[in-house]
Every structure is written in structure tokens, then in C-alpha cells.
Design brief:
The protein contains three helices and four strands; from the N terminus they run αβββαβα. It has about 110 residues and is α+β, with helices and mostly antiparallel strands. It has one domain: 2-Layer Sandwich (Ribosomal Protein S5, domain 2). Strands 1-2-4-3 form a four-stranded mixed sheet, sandwiched between helices.
């Protein structure tokens, strides 16, 4: 689980990233990111009903993405708010495929150290 300081918790902050942030999308995932004035990066994951009808499947995707981010926090540049937006095709992917795609997205966005 991500520590509180690494999470975007307020809906106003998440909406700001969704509306004003730059976005990059790949096959199964996308990110929207925006600089913040903090010394760390914060993350939110938006998994809607379009991903899957069952909550258990949606929660599994969220847990996998959170764990990937937690394990790679030391490689991610500080000072950004990031919103991770999965596409419905992410349900069919393994943990390793999701991990590779998230790291590729962060690299394209120049968010990796």
C-alpha cells in the first residue's frame, strides 16, 4: 500500500490533474501528470466501471498498479501529481506486462530518474 503522503486524496486535486495535466497513453494504460510544489510525487488510480463490471477485478487492477508504483518510488522524480488511467484491455494482462507498461509511460513522460 502506498503511504498517505504519496497519494492524491482530495477530489479537487485529482480533477485538477485530469483537466490540466499532460497525458500519455499506451495500449492498456495511460497517465496524466502535472507538476506540484512538493518534494515528492503523489499518485491516484482511476479504475471505472468500463474496466470491468465486477469490483473484485477493478480492485485487483488498482492493487497491482499501487504495488508497482510503491516498488518503483525511488526511481520516480519528485514534484509531480500523477493520475493512472487503465483501459479495459488491462484486465487480460499479467502483473509483469502492467509493470512494463507503467515504467514505459513514466519514461516517456520523463518522470523516471
Amino acid at each position: 500500500m502506498l503511504k498517505k503522503e504519496f497519494r492524491l486524496r482530495k477530489s479537487i486535486e485529482i480533477e485538477r490533474v485530469a483537466k490540466c495535466g499532460r497525458s500519455i497513453f499506451l495500449r492498456n494504460l495511460g497517465i496524466k501528470y502535472l507538476p506540484n510544489s512538493l518534494a515528492l510525487s503523489r499518485f491516484a488510480i482511476a479504475v471505472g466501471l468500463k474496466i470491468h463490471k465486477k469490483a473484485a477485478k477493478r480492485n485487483k487492477v488498482k492493487r497491482q498498479i499501487r504495488e508497482i508504483i510503491r516498488l518503483n518510488l525511488d526511481k520516480i522524480k519528485p514534484g509531480f501529481d500523477v493520475l493512472v488511467v487503465p483501459k479495459p484491455s488491462v484486465i487480460d494482462n499479467s502483473y509483469r506486462e502492467i509493470e512494463g507498461e507503467i515504467l514505459e509511460l513514466l519514461k516517456k513522460a520523463s518522470l523516471l530518474v
